[in-house]
Specification:
This protein has two domains: 15-72, no CATH class; 98-150, no CATH class. The protein has one helix at 15-50; strands at residues 57-59, 70-72, 98-101, 113-124, 127-133, 140-144, 148-150. It is 24% helix and 25% strand. It is an alpha+beta fold. The strands form two sheets. Strands 6-5-4-3-7 form a five-stranded antiparallel beta sheet, with no helix packed on it. It has a two-stranded antiparallel sheet with strand order 1-2.
């Protein structure tokens, strides 16, 4: 044969052998990945064990079956709570109480007279509000505490 000719022999592989050949390269790749991963995790564990935890909890290592000991560090200081807080004001009148309603001078002139407190409402500014009802009216009104007096 002359020196410049190349001979090549190609054999067709069956599907089954092609799959197993692919698998073997994949498993070889996986094994390589696992080995590098295990090396990395071992290095990580070694570096963790070399470090001591900052602050919170210091765990001592087990010595011949001794129990794990936890040492707690001191908590940061807590700000003191003010002892003299402003007491919350409560409603002057209670549900079911009969009050005398004085209508405001501006706007609609409402019927002044005796009303029953039906519901306590939240404050609007400095004044608490009440839902009141008169026995002579079919509807309820909203009145401020400054518009009511004890009957």
């Amino acid at each position: 044969m002359p020196a410049n000719k190349i001979c090549c022999y190609i054999e067709i592989m069956s599907r089954h052998s092609a799959k197993t050949a692919g698998r073997s390269t994949k498993t070889a790749g996986r094994a390589a990945k696992k080995s590098t991963k295990s090396v990395r995790s071992a290095a990580k564990k070694a570096s963790k064990s070399a470090r001591s935890p900052v602050g919170k909890i210091n765990r001592t290592t087990r010595v011949q079956g001794a129990a794990t000991k936890m040492i707690r560090t001191q908590s940061p200081p807590v700000q003191p709570v003010a002892a003299h807080e402003v007491p919350l004001r409560t409603h002057k009148y209670q549900v079911g109480e009969i009050v005398y309603y004085t209508s405001p001078t501006f706007g609609r002139a409402a019927a002044t007279g005796s009303y029953t407190v039906v519901k306590l409402l939240p404050s609007e500014g400095d004044d608490y509000q009440y839902r009141i009802k008169s026995s002579g009216e079919a509807f309820e009104r909203v009145a401020k505490e400054s518009q009511l007096d004890r009957a």
